[in-house]
Predict the 3D structure of the following.
Amino acid sequence: MSRDNAEKLSFVNDYCEAAHPSILNRLSETALEKNPGYGTDAICASAAEKIRKACECPDADVYYLVGGTQTNLMVIDCMLQPYEGVVAAASGHVAVHEAGAIEFTGHKVLTLPEHLGKIDAGELDALVAGFYADGNYEHMVFPGMVYISHPTEYGTLYSRAELEALREVCDRYRLPLYLDGARLSYALASTEAGDCDLTLADIARLTDVFYIGGTKCGALFGEALVFTKNNMPAHFCTRVKQHGAMLAKGWLLGLQFDTLFNNDMYVRIGSNAIRTAKKLKKALAEKGYRFLIESPTNQTIVIVDNKKKAELAEKVNFSFWENVDENHTAIRFCTSWGTKDADVDRLIEIL
Amino acid sequence: MSRDNAEKLSFVNDYCEAAHPSILNRLSETALEKNPGYGTDAICASAAEKIRKACECPDADVYYLVGGTQTNLMVIDCMLQPYEGVVAAASGHVAVHEAGAIEFTGHKVLTLPEHLGKIDAGELDALVAGFYADGNYEHMVFPGMVYISHPTEYGTLYSRAELEALREVCDRYRLPLYLDGARLSYALASTEAGDCDLTLADIARLTDVFYIGGTKCGALFGEALVFTKNNMPAHFCTRVKQHGAMLAKGWLLGLQFDTLFNNDMYVRIGSNAIRTAKKLKKALAEKGYRFLIESPTNQTIVIVDNKKKAELAEKVNFSFWENVDENHTAIRFCTSWGTKDADVDRLIEIL
Amino acid sequence: MSRDNAEKLSFVNDYCEAAHPSILNRLSETALEKNPGYGTDAICASAAEKIRKACECPDADVYYLVGGTQTNLMVIDCMLQPYEGVVAAASGHVAVHEAGAIEFTGHKVLTLPEHLGKIDAGELDALVAGFYADGNYEHMVFPGMVYISHPTEYGTLYSRAELEALREVCDRYRLPLYLDGARLSYALASTEAGDCDLTLADIARLTDVFYIGGTKCGALFGEALVFTKNNMPAHFCTRVKQHGAMLAKGWLLGLQFDTLFNNDMYVRIGSNAIRTAKKLKKALAEKGYRFLIESPTNQTIVIVDNKKKAELAEKVNFSFWENVDENHTAIRFCTSWGTKDADVDRLIEIL
Amino acid sequence: MSRDNAEKLSFVNDYCEAAHPSILNRLSETALEKNPGYGTDAICASAAEKIRKACECPDADVYYLVGGTQTNLMVIDCMLQPYEGVVAAASGHVAVHEAGAIEFTGHKVLTLPEHLGKIDAGELDALVAGFYADGNYEHMVFPGMVYISHPTEYGTLYSRAELEALREVCDRYRLPLYLDGARLSYALASTEAGDCDLTLADIARLTDVFYIGGTKCGALFGEALVFTKNNMPAHFCTRVKQHGAMLAKGWLLGLQFDTLFNNDMYVRIGSNAIRTAKKLKKALAEKGYRFLIESPTNQTIVIVDNKKKAELAEKVNFSFWENVDENHTAIRFCTSWGTKDADVDRLIEIL
């Protein structure tokens, strides 16, 4: 991971800034108020109520956790039976970039091909049907739930029709469908911008459980896990504690989501990232750059020749994505809730 | 867990306030600065350097984690061999109040009797010697490390001589000695106040690994784990990730400890809690209350009759500790870095 | 573990001989018959039917496993929820002599005091009631099932009244009751001999799951696990495979139990051990030896002075049990299904 | 799993017969001899010595376990660091047919493409090199050992050159190389027959650990694990116990391998299977059948049209392998140490 240089422009990731000022202000103002521990406080309850409204899911159970990998492993470990694995795209975060955290809980990740980071309902159907058609299936890992991310690791989005198709397969085999929303505010802002037709209410309706990402979407840290079907695992808080994942001062999480869900701030935060990313994508296209993957959200994955890459690296921090050929590399620019237009303009100038 | 009432006095715990204002101010001031992730930033490095100096342990490895149970399970799981268990007092946090988090990592907690929350070096020696004297020891759990807390769960403290005696036994059997310092600022303030002779440098010298508690000692959250003998487990950050315990914005932890270790702020924070607790203990003694356990730190565990308890509960939030007899209950008052003299005075008045 | 000497008498354990000849004969006669794998064969089904009849439990599910620790960990891991632990006597095999196999599956062993190796229903009730009375119980390990052994590790036996009392407590808290019958044939032979009033049908009626020991009771190896309440965990065979505990040639287990449950052979095998143990106990009492623990079954735990112990060790193999004082040691003589009267007579002579 | 019918021919698998008569005879003859437990006996030592000689590896550590999946998970769990996974062919037994037993120990299986069931040294090199070239590798699962099977799951064999090439890559990255020899006698018989150039001594020299299969090669059950480089994991027997994998009567395993390694019996047992399989393969080729995969060992995987398959199923038990197209299926005939020429002749006639 390249270290930032304070004087350089930075488009490395969307978790490089601490938090939106309104969160920090509220934290400062309430610093000496005393709250009960472990999320049993009134602020957590208030945030949960706002989330239930935003999701149009009045019965949802909301539980706050600190980070994304932690949330993924808690959901997967607690919702699978011990003999089950989770189905995910080969490019899914749980399959590649979590240091084996899912396997560490004892569960296999069963992979499907990725199509721009997404899985296909037909291929999911074939995988599960094929499993049960095998006379020896009791000697194999049962497909026990489906993991998707939205936006995906490539910044792409599921349409409502695609999610409905996955839902239908999941219903057929009684598989819970889990959506990793680490960057959900950017997806929702894309829907707001007309680039996607999937709403927060759709997500709550079509999945069994999903999480609303805070870490990459304006919070200091934190993810809000939403169980949509009265399906929160029994004694979930004990299991959270057992995994070492319980925050003593649970209200710190509640306070952040209570702020983010004030007056649609969560979507507005995403819109800034989308708007600045679009400006950048447009400029890149006009300058003749090719994209490795085209996506409507805040990640821009573009192919540069290696000489250009070296030049850029002197002035801008970005992420290496992958080697394309001997002379070309795919690199990623990430905008965020905090990205300033001036910085994007400077980046475009440099490019 | 009793819910606080905003208008009532609260002495429930030492993690009821968010954080010391100097931490929140610094967070606000730097909210939009961009930092690299996962603790690879300059602030984490700066804090680690301050901690090494404070510990007089120039080679120490410092790693920041979010919470106490998480830190305990990471240390124990990563430093034990799979066939080993951790030795702890029967009253130790890892033995009782972590929802089986240690066993969940596959390791048994081997218990010793507690003496005011502490373990005895002679009894530790007997346990380990007895293990190896048993002809069938390969069918049993090997004692693989020793866990102590300082202050203990009862607020008591180890003396330097007691810690040296434990060290000697650990050396004899090559057992790493781990000290849980969830409330370490209160212990260090006690040493400053002359109630204990164990310094931070002693702790670094006599243990193999320990942690400096942030959550209960002025930070929003966070614990600084210190490996004192060039003994940080290989690829520790991968293992942290694998346990779901890695904070993406690692510098948030560094920033808090960098602030806490400015000009001895960490000890000063503890001193406020000790001073106010002493005022309370003195008043209680004068009023004829009996203590369940006498301790010099910020926890005050006192015996009240049940009628009195009910009266108190209307005006003050405190913790239930244990039933003493049919008519008496032990309850706990906790002071903290943020406790105000006025509140203690009001509590004394009520008592 | 002391190595046997072929010429010496051996009373070390009850798993020192291979198997009852009728089992080996049947194995030899059928060596080249072809059977389907994994216990799906007709012999396993036949043995299960015989066991169901012997237990007077027509709906029981029977599953064969290879060894005792394996059986204990499979039952406990598969019947507990992840946040639960198993309650056992402090002297229970799962608590002491299984190398932490239970904790290795992630579950804590919650111990009760042992009374001649047994647990007390009142103390069990107090433990569970105390757990739920603690306001912080969600931060602790839930008591999730009860483990007992019959005969116990000391050779003692539960009476029907004692087992009924445990059952009542288990019913109150909906805890499954599990009975480890590693040496069950010796318990059943004791009932036959009038030393105990607990029958196999009682055990099936009063427990949720138990196992009929083969390894120590005439089989080459193997234990028959009996789920008595239509409560075999879902996809149990997949979980057995996942633990590496599935025997490819499952019918080898079925064949042994099918033989052992022919014409009460299982109880007759136990009777030989009981009869020879009683002869030994009587002779020891007459010679003035004191017993550490008096038990009606095939283990005889007797106190000898250390000089005598050394003399004995030249002629007889036995087990060290524990040091009694500086000059005395408790040692154990074990008889088995294969013990010959001539050997017991020689042992008595030597004593 | 299709159930055998006693009157039908059976070529379902190579673990359908109990054991070679010489093993059962020896078991019967020694049934009442008393042995110390847990493999500490003289027979286990004798067998280990014979194995060391056969392997030309005088320092090898030999440990006996009951079954194949158990052996695989013990080796992989005990030889990997917690942050490491095992590299295997996508068709490897550990990747597909062990019900997730490897992931259940916390380790990911990192797959390589299979080439007739084998992995390619160049592709292994690329996988490991690519891992370390990724700047984020600490967030991913480290490749920690290499698993191969010989014969593979398809009955194919590694040549000496292929194994040396894998060894070279393993040396470059310090990866232990593990060979699963569930059907090793059939591989060794192929070498004897001139179809392969890899000897038992080569295997011991080129791998770090491998196992000599008993279950499928004439034993009742059991696998002999051979650590060739003074690299048996510390306290391995405690870890075996902890996994529930320890056989109390360890000598039962020793006795079987002591018999199998008498006068090359282990290779002779394989030769019968190879000879009868060759007869079958030759006849099939002459009759114009196509093979899905050609292999020199005891598995014959042949393509039949579905009408033929249905006819065959009335007279012969075989295994379903995979659907080839709408009208054709690949089925498997397995010969074994016990296959009779008369049965093969009848099968050929039927075909």
In short: Chain A touches chain B through 62 residues (CB under 8 Å). The radius of gyration of chain A is 21 Å. Chain A is about 40% helix and 20% strand. The first helix of chain A runs from residue 21 to 29.
